[in-house]
Amino acid sequence: MSIFKRSNCYQLRRRVPRRYRSVEPRGTIWVSLHTDSETVARSKADRVWSQLIEAWEARLAGDTAAAEKRYEAAQELARIRGFRYLDIDLVSRLPVEALLQRVEAIRDVRGVPDTFEASALLGTVQKPRITVEAALDIYWTLAREKVVGKSEHQVRRWKNPRIKAVRNFVEVVGNKPIDAITRDDMLDFRQFWLERIEAAEVTPNSANKDLIHLGDVLKTVNNMKRLGLDLPLGELSFREGEKSTRPPFSVDWIRKRLLAPGALSGLNDEARGLLLGMVNTGYRPSEGAGLTTGTIHLGHDIPHISIEPIDRQLKTRHSRRVIPLAGVSLEAFREFPNGFPRYRDSASLSGTVNKYLKENGLLETPEHSFYSLRHAFEDRMIEAGIDDRIRRDLFGHRLDRERYGKGASLAHLAKLVEGIAL
């Protein structure tokens, strides 16, 4: 049994036996033993390994999806015969007359009772136990309305943190049936995150997101499948510190450093175009990357872009808007009138730009990033005395009051943006 200490906590590490490769994708498992004592760790390691073996054997022995289909078929057959499906313990408590009605309703096939009908009407079809991993598979179907209108990239970004949360839980607790999850299991999972927070590997915010995504999967399946479980998910979150925000680039820094001749020449053309487009529009990087020929309007009397939910979902309903083009942003879109296909369905834009800015000394402070251009655009609007309603409309932010009228005209917006454009 291989155990080792990491961040003051012992871990179990062991290769997955060949027998279980079909039900366990990991080649090697790593499980926190939640102790800094080697003696305790060794005693816990054997128990944890035995639990893993039991879980793998259970998965080899049964097919959760097939069991669920059999159970649903039994429920439907009982309904067709005019009965509500009841588990056998409830059937056994029925009055004699009601029980006889069920027995008499079972059809004979050549003088022999149909076994599946008997199981459906007498409640002997075993109710499937949904494991955590199976719950995730079910969740994708139950929560499908949440991906309506999202692009493939947005769907991936939505799925990945939920996959990660379930994977982390299974590594710590095991792939248990969700009706067998205990309060101790959830506290063990919380302890796993606490140790990582204490080791400065993650922030409380990251841990809370994992807990939220796991809870979303389990609660959705519990509610939509009408399981009626009392899931032990309360009071698990970590207290978060003051939320940090990216500082804005100063006007001098943008002019003298970012827009200096040759400063961005080493950045690939589309990433450079997206950065320059952001200077005088303040769009979110994903919004800029999603622009297409149909949303870049250079032939209009007033050149502008329109942020619309075309083949993708916007961050909020307030994000839909038009933004006039001016200065270096207008020049960038004249170079890329069809948008930026390289980054349309890619998550690499911010990473590429931030890496370039850092390696070339173009970050005003270590806290600055690509996103700081969005903050800088708003600061310039504030300094120019632009009305709060207009700032929110240009930024795609919610208005903290009733929204009246259509807002400022495109011509008025263009005049304001030209006044602060670089």
Per the CATH scheme, the topology name of the largest domain is hpI Integrase, Chain A
Characterize the biggest β-sheet: 3 strands, antiparallel
Element-by-element helix/strand order = EEEHHHHEEHHHHHHHHEEEHHHHH
* Number of β-strand runs: 8
Kindly name the structural category: mainly alpha
Gross CATH architecture of the largest domain: Orthogonal Bundle
User: What is the CATH top level name of the largest domain?
Assistant: Mainly Alpha
Shape: globular
Strand order within the widest beta sheet:
1-2-3
The number of distinct structural domains comes to: 3
| Arithmetic mean of pLDDT | 83
How far is the N terminus from the C terminus? 63 Å
List unreliable stretches of 5+ residues.
none
Residues in β-strands, percent: 5-15%
Percent of residues in helical segments?
A: 40-55%
- Total helix count? 17
Q: Rg, please?
A: 29 Å
CATH superfamily of the largest domain: Intergrase catalytic core
Explain what you see.
With 422 residues, this protein is mainly alpha-helical. It folds into three domains: 64-122, no CATH class; 129-239, DNA polymerase, domain 1; 251-420, Orthogonal Bundle (hpI Integrase, Chain A). It contains 17 helices and eight strands. It has a three-stranded antiparallel sheet, covered by helices on one side. A hairpin with a 2-residue loop joins β1 (2-6) and β2 (9-15). α2 (64-80) crosses α5 (115-122) and α7 packs across α9. The protein starts with a strand and ends with a helix.
